[in-house]
Amino acid sequence: MIPHVTDAIKEFVLSNHDGEDFILCEIGGTVGDIESLPFLEAIRQIGNELGRDATCFLHVTLIPYISPRRAENQTNPAFSKELQSVGIQPDILLCRTEYPLPDVSARKSGYFVISESAVVLARDVSNI
To answer: Which of 55, 77, 100 is the last residue of a domain?
Structure first.
């Protein structure tokens, strides 16, 4: 990782906040893609520098619907080994899904990534 690139990203994220209570920074794309690595590294460094009491990592993941016959949601994408491999442990897991997610799937997601109480289900809607 090139330090001046991550330093520039950190400076951009942390500048111009003029006394706001919090900063919301979205890192788009797919974890593991080479294009996102400098951004993930910068946000990891910000988390380390500010500490756990001053940061919150929220991971949004798609839980695809696999089979209408079995009414099954696939929770494996939520187990983001790639995210953890870059040193980021989500505090909250927001699970996007087209259909209701059975409680067992929510618990399964929580057990593998974070506490069950930090798993939030977000059903797809046609309009916000």
So the answer is: 55
- Predicted local distance difference test score (pLDDT) of residue 17: 81
Task: Identify the bridge partners of residue 60 per DSSP, sorted by sequence position.
Answer: 94
Provide the domain count of the chain. Answer: 2
DSSP state letter for 101: P
Mean pLDDT in each 10-residue stretch from start to end of the chain (128 residues)?
A: 91 88 86 87 95 91 70 54 82 84 60 74 83
For the record, the structure tokens of 14 come out as: 């942390």
Domain of 101?
56-128
Beta carbons within 10 angstroms of residue 111's beta carbon: 12
- The pairing of beta strand 58-62 with beta strand 92-97: parallel
Contacts within 8 Å (CB) and 24+ apart, 106-111: 108/75, 109/63, 109/75, 109/78, 109/79
